[in-house]
Every structure is written in structure tokens, then in C-alpha cells.
């Protein structure tokens, strides 16, 4: 790996730390309806969070996980979210370094950067939506609905910069198809699928469809495999029953990343088994 690539990966990691710090605010405030613009403060003593106390990961370690004013413990989730976001951004940047060849062989640097930006956005909302759904069993419209515009807008820009328009058409079809599929599931079994899951399905379908039909099928199917395995494991361990509500959003997102990362080789391998 050349020095420029190492520099870009390091830059992506630092950017991920900053975005991860913001995601902590989003995860806490969006479900509660608290404005994102409100200054951060300690929930017990109301002491404001100083700039030096808001450095991702480092501040939590320096403060030993406690409020500087009253000693209230600060959840380990905060540095973990920041570190996880940094790792996700490094992964996306690593993928993007080969993005020129990934976009159907079109040597379009601008298109590659735009697609990378779309994937970085999806990585960020993946972390936020996963934790929010685990916390409150809800996928907020404030995050999901704007994601349609962000994804389609960035992919359209990528096409204007040289990516094939067929990819954008496939993304639109993928989004509509996965949305319709989840909508049918919700209609057949109203309690098994939430409205937020249906809306998120369209966003997931756009991303997977952009990458190809293989990733769309693999990513869509992987959500049910992963969710099913987790549900069975909970029942075997007697931590859940057949009527226990399990948030499905995290598994939709996990399945999406399976499709993004290994959807093409998995689909090709499966087709190879069927057609020698």
C-alpha cells in the first residue's frame, strides 16, 4: 500500500471519530425529540461539556469515564460508537481506493469519490439506526426518510461524473422492489414487520441495487438468515419466546453490509453451483 493510501485511510479514521461523536448525540436525542443544536451538558449536574472534554475517545479516557464536575459515570457506549464509526469509515475508504474498477470499469475519479461519500453516509446511519432500534424499537423518520434523497442524489451525481446510468436505474428498481417486498410482509403479518422496517428496506434496496442484482439478493436474504439465527439462539437460551418482539432493523443493516462487502462473490459462487 502506497503512502497516499495510508494517509487517506488515516484521514478517514479521524473523520470517522468526529462523525462518531456526532452520532452519539443523534442516537440519544433524535428518539427523545431533543434538538441536535442544544449544547451538551451533564444530565445530573447540568455542567456544560467543554471542548477539551469532547475529543472523541481521548476525552473519555482522560476523564476515566466520569463527568469532570460531579463524577457521574459516562457510558462506555460513547467511545465504542466513536471507535466503531472510525473503523467503518476506514473500511469504506479501503473499498473506495479500488472504486474506479468497481464502477463497471469506468475510470471516473469523481464518481468514485461520490460513491464513497454515499457509502460513508450509509455507514453512519447504519450505526445510529442499529443502536436506536435496539434502544427504543423504532427507526426514526428523521433519519430514514432523508436517506432516500441523500442516496439517490449522490448516485445521480456519480452518474453525471461518469458512472453508468444503468447502475442508477438498478438502484431505483432495487429500492422499489425491497420496499414492496417488506410492505407485502407487513400486510400479511402486521405484527411481524414495523413501518420503519418497510421504509428502511427502500434505502437498503437503493444501495444494494446500485452494486448489482447479486448484492441485492444476497443482502436482502442475509437479513432474514441473520435475524432468524439470532432469534433461534435467544429461544434456545430461553432469553426470548415466540411472542418476544425483536427489532429487525439491525439485521436488515447487517444483511445490507453482507451484500455490500461479499454480495458479488457469494452470488457468483451460488450461480456457479447451479450452472457448472
Automatic annotation (TrEMBL):
Family note: Belongs to the peptidase A24 family.
Location(s) in or outside the cell: Cell membrane
Per UniProt, the keywords (alphabetical) are: Cell membrane, Membrane, Transmembrane, Transmembrane helix
The cross-references to Gene3D superfamilies, in alphabetical order and at most eight, read:
1.20.120.1220
- Identification of the protein by name: Prepilin peptidase
Location of the Prepilin type IV endopeptidase peptidase domain:
121-232
Instruction: Look up keyword Iron and say if it applies.
Output: no
- Annotated membrane-spanning segments are 6-27, 80-97, 109-131, 143-163, 169-185, 216-236, 248-267
Instruction: State the organism of origin.
Output: Microbacterium pullorum
Q: Give the membrane topology.
A: Multi-pass membrane protein
Quick one: signal sequence residues? none
Residue ranges of the Prepilin peptidase A24 N-terminal domain?
14-94
Tagged with keyword Transmembrane helix:
yes
Amino acid at each position: 500500500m502506497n503512502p497516499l493510501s495510508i494517509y487517506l485511510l488515516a484521514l478517514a479514521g479521524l473523520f470517522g471519530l468526529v462523525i462518531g461523536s456526532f452520532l452519539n448525540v443523534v442516537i440519544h436525542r433524535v428518539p427523545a425529540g431533543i434538538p441536535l443544536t442544544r449544547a451538551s451538558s451533564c444530565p445530573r449536574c447540568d455542567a456544560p461539556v467543554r471542548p477539551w472534554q469532547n475529543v472523541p475517545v481521548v476525552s473519555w479516557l482522560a476523564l476515566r469515564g466520569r463527568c469532570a464536575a460531579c463524577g457521574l459515570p459516562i457510558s462506555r457506549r460513547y467511545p465504542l460508537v466513536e471507535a466503531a464509526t472510525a473503523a467503518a469509515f476506514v473500511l469504506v475508504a479501503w473499498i473506495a481506493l479500488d472504486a474506479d474498477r468497481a464502477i463497471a470499469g469506468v475510470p471516473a475519479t469523481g464518481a468514485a469519490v461520490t460513491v464513497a461519500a454515499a457509502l460513508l453516509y450509509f455507514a453512519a446511519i447504519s450505526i445510529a439506526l442499529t443502536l436506536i432500534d435496539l434502544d427504543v424499537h423504532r427507526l426514526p423518520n428523521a433519519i430514514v426518510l432523508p436517506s432516500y434523497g441523500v442516496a439517490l442524489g449522490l448516485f445521480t451525481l456519480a452518474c453525471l461524473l461518469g458512472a453508468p446510468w444503468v447502475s442508477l436505474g438498478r438502484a431505483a428498481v432495487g429500492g422499489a422492489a425491497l420496499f414492496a417486498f417488506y410492505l407485502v410482509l407487513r400486510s400479511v403479518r402486521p405484527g411481524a414487520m414495523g413501518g420503519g422496517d418497510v421504509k428502511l428496506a427502500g434505502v437498503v434496496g437503493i444501495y444494494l441495487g446500485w452494486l448489482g442484482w447479486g448484492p441485492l439478493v444476497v443482502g436482502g436474504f442475509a437479513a432474514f438468515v441473520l435475524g432468524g439465527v439470532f432469534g433461534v439462539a435467544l429461544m434456545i437460551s430461553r432469553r426470548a419466546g415466540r411472542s418476544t418482539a425483536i427489532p429487525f432493523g439491525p439485521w436488515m443493516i447487517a444483511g445490507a453490509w453482507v451484500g455490500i462487502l461479499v454480495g458479488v462473490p457469494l452470488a457468483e459462487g451460488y450461480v456457479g453451483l447451479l450452472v457448472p
